[in-house]
Design goal:
Family: Belongs to the HMG-CoA reductase family.
Pfam families: HMG-CoA_red
Structural class: alpha+beta
Number of domains: 3
CATH architecture of the largest domain: Alpha-Beta Complex
Order of helices and strands: HEEHEEHHEEHEHEHHHHEEHHH
GO molecular function, one term: hydroxymethylglutaryl-CoA reductase (NADPH) activity
EC number: 1.1.1.34
GO biological process, one term: isoprenoid biosynthetic process
Distance between the termini: 45 Å
Length: 391
């Protein structure tokens, strides 16, 4: 007899309106919850294999537009209207205000410095000397390992392998470039092929675990701050003293002083980011554009830097060392997510660096706005005015 608590599925054609409806009815019978709004959607379920299982409908999230923001990047050039999916009142307004300041100061300069995606297997031996010697063998045979790994992918390229010895284990960190895909699955498949080749060709016995957790997938780590995971992208602006005073009612000297205090507080707390709120802009853009939302935990980490200049202006920059974005594959091709990417001119191949630059520019705008709001005393009052939906 079938299990009465088992979620209904059709192994032949599960991604369909019919089976989504069957599951909603099942859940209503089991829980009493009505799913009327969840069941209203414009997405064709046949597009969803590979994105979700046991599909029942959609969770609709409001999308607001911030901007425009002038980006002077190597890939993103011009004015961009930025979609932010959020339920937090004041957020879109705050980012727009920061973008206005940036625009009146000539725009934000953005640079993608480097980009890697990792898989980090651990190889286990009888003792530390065997592990050490294995590392030497890996270095000597890198070209063969690279060739094998790249047979599994059209666009992934193995650039280098880092090594760490701990006890009788050699931890390897395979670093790939992955084009316009985020690439976690791509590098997993490539590294599996490489590890199998290594075990078959290494002259001594070895065993491995495909991930020894030094790839830090979906986790923040200080290693990623130093050795980029995703894209290391930097956004810079020189804020004019007159513009900041006119729009934000804040003096650059006061902003510089407050930023030092915030840096100290973040350092004492051991925070992954020392600026006001990088995760707000990144998460909102990720949801709107079909990114893997769990990558926010890695992507939000970074450094907000500043320098008060002799003329009273202030230089500010955001460095995001592990920004993981894609413009191809995953959730980017779903209808509403694709539309948001098209809004930015970032859908499809050859656009990932452009998207990364826009994300970094947006983070900087949000940090400028919230930092000034805290200093100016209108942080709480803005939330009271725009963010008091209590229903």
């Amino acid at each position: 007899m079938s299990d009465p608590n088992r979620i209904p599925r059709n192994t032949m054609n599960d991604h369909s309106n019919e089976w989504a409806e069957k599951r909603r009815q099942f859940l209503t019978e089991k829980t009493g919850a009505t799913l009327n709004n969840t069941g209203h959607y414009s997405v064709d379920p046949s597009l969803l294999p590979g994105n979700v299982e046991n599909f029942i409908g959609v969770v609709q999230l409001p999308v607001g537009i911030a901007g425009p923001i002038q980006v002077n990047g190597e890939y993103a050039q011009g004015l961009f209207y930025v979609p932010l999916a959020t339920t937090e009142g004041t957020l879109v307004a705050s980012y727009s205000r920061g973008m206005r300041v940036i625009n009146e100061c000539g725009g934000v300069k953005t640079t993608v410095v480097e980009q890697f995606m990792q898989r980090a297997p651990a190889f286990i031996f009888e003792d530390a000397r065997e592990a050490r010697d294995f590392g030497h063998w890996i270095t000597a045979h890198f070209d063969e390992i690279k060739t094998v790994a790249e047979t599994t992918t059209r666009i992934g390229q193995l650039e280098h392998i880092q090594q760490w010895s701990v006890s009788k284990t050699k931890y390897l960190r395979f670093n790939y470039t992955t084009g316009d895909a985020a690439g976690q699955n791509m590098v997993g498949k490539a590294t599996l092929a490489a590890c199998e080749w290594i075990c078959a060709n290494y002259p001594h016995k070895c065993e491995y675990l495909l991930s020894g957790n030094m790839d830090t997938d979906k986790k923040h780590s200080h290693l990623n701050m130093l050795h980029s995971r995703g894209k290391r992208v930097i956004a810079e602006v020189v804020l004019k003293k007159s513009v900041l005073k006119k729009i934000m009612k804040v003096d650059t000297k006061t902003l510089a002083r407050a930023t030092v205090l915030a840096n100290t507080g973040a350092m004492m707390a051991g925070a992954a980011y020392n600026g006001p709120h990088s995760a707000n802009g990144i998460a909102s853009m990720f949801i709107a554009t079909g990114q893997d939302e769990a990558n926010v935990v890695e992507s939000h980490a970074g450094i907000l830097a500043h320098e008060l200049l002799d003329n009273g202006d202030i230089y500010m920059s955001v460095t995001l060392p592990s920004l993981i974005v894609a413009t191809y594959g995953g959730g980017t091709g779903l209808p509403t997510q694709k539309e948001c990417l098209e809004l930015l001119g970032c859908y499809g191949q050859g656009k990932a660096n452009k998207l990364a630059e826009i994300v970094a520019a947006t983070v900087l705008a949000g940090d400028i706005s919230l930092g000034c709001a805290v200093i100016g005393g209108h942080w709480v009052s803005s939330h009271d005015k725009l963010g008091r939906n209590r229903d």
